[in-house]
Structures are given as structure tokens and as C-alpha cells.
Amino acid sequence: MLKRTGEAFLCCDFFKRVRASSPLRGVVVGLVAALLITDASSCAEPLQTRFNSRTSADHAAPIERLLVMTAISNVGLEGMTYEVFESNLRTKLELCGIRSKVLQSKLIDVEATTHVGEAADELRPDAMMKIRGISNLRTADRTRLYFDLQLSDIASDRVLWLAKLAFDVQGDSVWFEDSAAGNRLAIGIVSQLRDDRVIRGCPASWQGSSKLSHESK
Predict the structure, then answer these.
(1) Residue 49 pLDDT grade (very low, low, confident, very high; cuts 50, 70, 90)
(2) Kindly report the CA angle at 158 between 154 and 159, in degrees rounded to 5?
(3) What is the DSSP letter of 141?
(4) Stronger pLDDT, 96 or 8, i.e. the higher one
């Protein structure tokens, strides 16, 4: 997909240059236009995964067990998409040496429930990460989902990491089934935690997502 997007931008750029070049205009413009029409989405802006994060985890103990609480169905991320997201989030965290458990809730502030207590007793987590769906914005070709994320040390109740995330999915419907989006979201979150040095056990061979747009403080 990334390769195809890159080709699309080259194609769009070429079309602009050809359109401004009089010797080639009559010969090539028709062919280029036909190619663009066959895949109208080629010139679209690529889907974004944009973080704005800040961290205070420099002197924190390494995280080995992480309890994740999510409340994201309100922005349309549920069903198959959520299942893929949760599975890949746990897989990527495990790859970075972190055992995790993910709990889904309609209201993330309901933390003193039996399920949370049982999960904490079973996992005995070092830290807790909360992922909240905030809102969504629909445009002609995509829906942008907005999230707040927070990761805290449980023993000290100290906030180690805060982030705001804008995440694009294909299409203009808030209710979608997109396994690729679920996987991309999981990789994006773990990659950002790694890049901000909140988690430090990821193998050097795993590049995660190198195409993220983010601003860390």
C-alpha cells in the first residue's frame, strides 16, 4: 500500500509537469489522464497516523506487564476491526517483551469493576494504558478518528506518557470493517511508545511503522 501511494504521488507530479510541457501535452496527457481515471484514489492524500505526545518515562522502571483499557467503539472502531487491533496490539507488545491484557469498555472511567479487578489480579501489571475514542470527522474519501492515550505507572500513579492521535481510515462511514486499519493502529501505538522510549525492549530488527507523522515533547 505504501509503495502504491508513492507511485500515485509520482504519477500526480508527472501529470502536473506534463500538463505544463507544451511539446508533450498533446501526446501524453490523454494517456496519463486515462491512467488516473482508472484509479481515481491514486492522487489522494495518504492515510495519516499522527501523534502529538509527551513523556516523562526517562527514569521509570521497565514495563513488563501492561493492562490496557479501551473505550473506542464510540468512534466506530469495533467488530472485526477492533478484534484485529486488540490481537495485534498484544502481539506487538509481546514482541517488545511486554505481557499485556486488553479490556474493552463503553466508559473507560469505570475502573473499579469486577472485570478490571480480576484482570489486575491475574496480570499484576506494572502500568496501565487508557485509550479513549474522542470524536471522528468524515470527509469525501476518509474518516479521521481522534483518540486520547495515557500510560501510567501503577505503583506510583505517575503519568508516564500522554498522547493525542489522529488516525485515518478509508471511506466516509464511521462504521467500518477494516482489518488493515486495526493492524495499522496497533503498530502505530506500539511504534510511538517505542520511539518515545516508554517501552525499550523492542528488537532492533522490528521497524514498526517508520511512516508515522508525530510531534513528541
Answers:
(1) very high
(2) 105
(3) S
(4) 96
pLDDT on residue 40: 46
Instruction: Read off the amino acid at residue 159.
Output: V
Which amino acid is it at 92? Answer: K
For residue 217, the model assigns a pLDDT of: 46
CA–CA separation, 144 and 142 (whole Å): 7
Picking from 4, 12, 19, 17, the residue whose alpha carbon sits closest to that of residue 37 is 12
In which residue are the cell numbers 506487564 written?
65
Residue 189 sits at φ, ψ, to 5 deg, of: -65, -45
Q: What is the pLDDT of residue 173?
A: 62
Grid coordinates representing 21 are 510541457
Reduce the DSSP state of residue 63 to 3 states and report it.
coil
Distances in whole angstroms, Cα of residue 186 to Cα of each of 46, 154, 156, 180, 207: 18, 22, 27, 10, 14
Strand order in the sheet with 49-55: 99-104, 65-71, 127-138, 142-153, 159-170, 49-55, 213-216
